[in-house]
From TrEMBL:
EC number, UniProt record: 4.3.2.7
Organism: Oleiphilus messinensis
PANTHER family attached to this UniProt entry: CATION TRANSPORT PROTEIN CHAC-RELATED (PTHR12192), GLUTATHIONE-SPECIFIC GAMMA-GLUTAMYLCYCLOTRANSFERASE 2 (PTHR12192:SF2)
Protein name: glutathione-specific gamma-glutamylcyclotransferase
GO biological process: glutathione catabolic process
Amino acid sequence: MCSANTIAENQKNNHFANADRVWLFAYGSLIYKVDFPYLERKPAYIQHYSRRFWQGSHDHRGTPDAPGRVVTLIQEQEARCGGMAYCITPEVFTHLDHREKNGYLRVKLAVHFSPHEQLEGLVYIAPEHNSAFLGAAPIAQIAKQIAFSSGPSGRNSDYVLQLASALGELEVQDEHVFAVADQVRAYLDCEP
Ligand code: SIN
């Protein structure tokens, strides 16, 4: 398992090169850890993707030798993924590219605010071919890895519990996230 670095690739990305505003769709820690400036934010969703704890975290919630697990988006025809959209200026991408450098690429996608209101926005997705991708595993195994991982940004369990709580506040149903969060809580309750 190894870390990735997508900064150079993302900086070559010229989606919205001439735009003075871009809508960023956030579905993981970018929902609740907002360490970047934004002009406006609104709950939003994207179609045909599921949120999964299938991406390794070697730099934030784990280490190169003991990676944690964080979310990425996986294509699934019938799926819908709820989150938060932020209207940002393009300068903010320097910070975001650094924060999301372990495998995430900027992808242009339709961001929906309602069934009648959508626009083109950007999403950071860690694709299956990136070197930090861990892939599917049983929920109990994912939760156990998360319960015992931590890194420079803190405990991996906090990432999951804060995400579950932020999704609850947004009234977003996500069975995968809630199932992992429940199992992580069960592991933490057993801690001495
Ligand atoms: C996101 O939150 O949109 C990307 C994944 C993450 O940073 O957790």
